[in-house]
Amino acid sequence: MSAPILVLTCGGTFDKNRFTKDGKFVCGSTEVERILADTGVAAVECEEIMRKDSLDMDDEDRSKVAATVAGAASKRIVIVHGTDTMEATARALAVKNFAKTVVLTGAMRPAVFAHTDADFNLGFALGCAAVLGTGVWVAMHGEIFPAAEVTKDVDQMRFVRKA
Q: In sequence order, what are the residues at sequence separation of 6 or more whose Cβ sits closer than 8 angstroms to the Cβ of residue 66?
């Protein structure tokens, strides 16, 4: 039997769930495991890489994500990532040419919010990871994009294919 899908968490809006003393909304422990438990998803492993807003991620963080992907036993990986720099991380991973299926996803609204896109995006990304071929993909709002062809449209608050 092959290894289950591995979900790697990096933080981002998806996992913003607590306030600091100065009122900043920041990443806390991941909501991924709660979502998986609530929905009965069992054939998934979860591993936290970091708890960062993606605007705070740098090349060293992207190297850490790449090393985790490279060292993972699973050939199917979902990465929960902040949306502001998701496309940069997707492109950084794509040049590594992993013989794996890597799907990045995130949320425009935190998973702890009542009207969030987090649950849907996670489920969609897991489905994509289960059926797509090798490569690096971004799965958001019911659409899947190859890493080289995606960009975030801030005005529409969604990911689109690069023109």
A: 92, 93, 96
